[in-house]
Amino acid sequence: MDIERSCLKLLFTKVNPEQIIETACREPQPSEQSIFDSYKTISDETFIGNANEVFHNYTQNEWDNICIQLRDKLYNPHGVFGIIYKISKQWLVINKGEILCQFKELLRWRDLSFHLGQDLLTTAFLARWDYKKGIERTNFSWPAIIKTDNHELHEILARGIAENHFHLNGSTQIFTLNWISLMNHIFGRSKQFKALNCQDVHLYRCKYAALLRYYFFLRIQDRKLSQELGEFFGLGKPGIPDLDAASNLNELQNRINAGIGLFGHKSQNGVLDYAYTTDSIAHHNDGNNRVLAGERKLLYDCYTCAFNGSFSECEKNLFYAYLLLRTRFRSVLVQVNGQRGFKNFDNYQKRKEIFLESPKYEYELVRLAVNATLDYQKIISLEARICPKKTGADNCKVIQSIDNYASIKAKEGIQDIWSKQSPPKPTPPKELFYVLHFPKAAVGLEKKFNFPSVRGRDIRSDVYIRTKGIMDLMLRDHFCRDRVKGIDACANEIDCRPEVFAESFRRLTDLHCNYEYAFPTLQAPPPRKLHTTYHVGEDFLDIVDGLRAIDEVMLFCGLGKGSRLGHALALGVNPQRYYYLKNGKLILKRQDLLDNICWLLEKAKSYKIHIASKLRIELEKLFKEIYQIIYCNKDQKKVKICDYYNSWQLRGDRPEIYLLSNKEFEDDLLRGNSFLPKDQYRLNQHIDKTLRDNELYRSLNYLYYYNYDVRQKGNELEIFHVPQQYDDLVSHVQNKMMEEIAAKGIAIEANPSSNYLIGTIDRYEEHPIFKFNPPPGNSVSLSVSINTDDQGVFDTLLENEYALIALAYKKGQSKNKQAKKALEYLDYIEFLRQQGEQQIFK
Hints:
two-stranded antiparallel ribbon, Ado/ade_deaminase, 12 strands, Adenosine/AMP deaminase, 842 residues, alpha/beta
């Protein structure tokens, strides 16, 4: 089955769709099977050219055998479509009309459906299933992600699950929305494709897809119309249709527009998709998944025609080409490229709305993300993360807009939102609330003539403006303020330390203290407690770097009981395996390496962790060498590691105060002569105040923030050769930090599929959740919740995230022979479910 799964990946991700279109009507003879690609054969060039990537664990002799077997399976009346059905039927079941995945096959299903898309597989399965049983299927608005058939698991999750980490715009059906928008409005898209800047998907390929999609839609609706369209554009003739000419593309768009007017269901939002027809509206009830129905029905009908012989050989090839083009486009919106790290994910999430220009699709975005999610699962709390705007008014506008989208039934449309009259107060789902997340940005090195310029000047300015916008929203007696329950900082954490957000976090979690100063003429509303969470330890260039960032969040931003850490993978990844995968070599900026070494040594001291003398000497020597390179000409006294560590603790203060002279510093801060209420958050109250009395510590902090030479030399890269026993030391620090975090009452937001795809774990059994929150009987147990993160980018569902962890737990216990009873994994899932419920921001 694993070989067949790999073969199907090859058939849908490595075959050239243009070649299929070009040779669509030429059926190769058996003697020519090694030359052409088609829906029922694969060429030597395609197979051998990709075998090393797809079948890297097999020898070349085995490749030959796999290729022969694959050709034998393809050379049948149903070709690749029959292979899809054969594989899918071993994993999928239908229970009371609902399509489900067998729980025991979830990992295999997850792997294949993630790469190809669930609809490509489910519609083929249902088409063949219904054809064999004589069923006439009418409803195609089933949920975007199907569940498993594990009844016991569903019973537990039906008690209520909390979604505590849910980025709103990344949690809709990103691919489907963009695809439908593009297929209905293909003309004038050059700008978006240029911005997409992706070699795998070009406008000319999507032109062919739009033509093929409309052809097959007409083929199902009206054979005469499809023949006329095919003849006009040359479908079925040798070569590729000419759509490069603007006149031809314009003609295609005009014909699609005609189909939109003739067939598409005219909701009050406009026509979403010509394939979502007026005839089908009664079967889908215009519900939350309606935008998925048109494409699904089209695929289902085409598969049916392929199975029952209605399609010609040419049409089968063209349908295969459409599926290839569709899968290729999906690969630039759903993170399937197998690359690790947040930067790779960031490339995907930036594309998520690139083809959604019309308000009607923005409306569907929210409906699919919020309402469809709530309808299909027993979610008792949905914590939607959105980016704060720069003014209170804009924040209110965004929240009201989302609330309206989520409040109005799909069939009612959005006429109130776009009318000139003031809309009534929305009544959004009671489970929905918001957390505002500051976007992180890399801290660069400004030009020398801009100095003295604080490190992170641009991002600090942005954070300051957005903080004012949040304060304006929260401190006024406004409906929207009650919709916001917390703050966060998200996005790529490399080169953006928590110190940037420290003052804002302290200020925003204590808003009522600032009210009189901020708005002296207004009557203060009741104090509101904004909760805190922070994306940290998710992506790092050394585990120690991630651990230090977690410590900085707690120390600088003031996270305490009831707060959460998003991801925090650095706490739980296996150091031995991590450094082995890196071949014992890391590349970091000198400043980060210096800070990491200092922090690790001092943290180990505070935790009373023994460090082998050889390792200690090596780390101390490296610290001194790097320190001399960065700070060599600054006339500093001989600086000890503890001195540098103490200066590091001052980074949570507002940097500008260290620009003052010694006397001004003493007058302003130490004696408190001008310590105004508005400035009370500029100092980090979570450190020993006497640290600021030391002139050396203040000087080092000033150099870190303002000296150009220090920053320039600190930005240079250094290869760090990981010493022996370094991994053991890191492991001990991880364990002690987990104890500290648990004692402080800080929880972890785990996102299994997100962590699997971004982090360095290769199997769900390796997820740090089993270290954070192990089975009962272990000494340390952090509070951990299961969440989806960006369920659209990762093509998942909260219930399936629980199911994946349940199956991983079950496999792990079976492998280690630790299971005491067959259903022990369900007890663990119930324990995690309760943890998620307890983490809800009240």
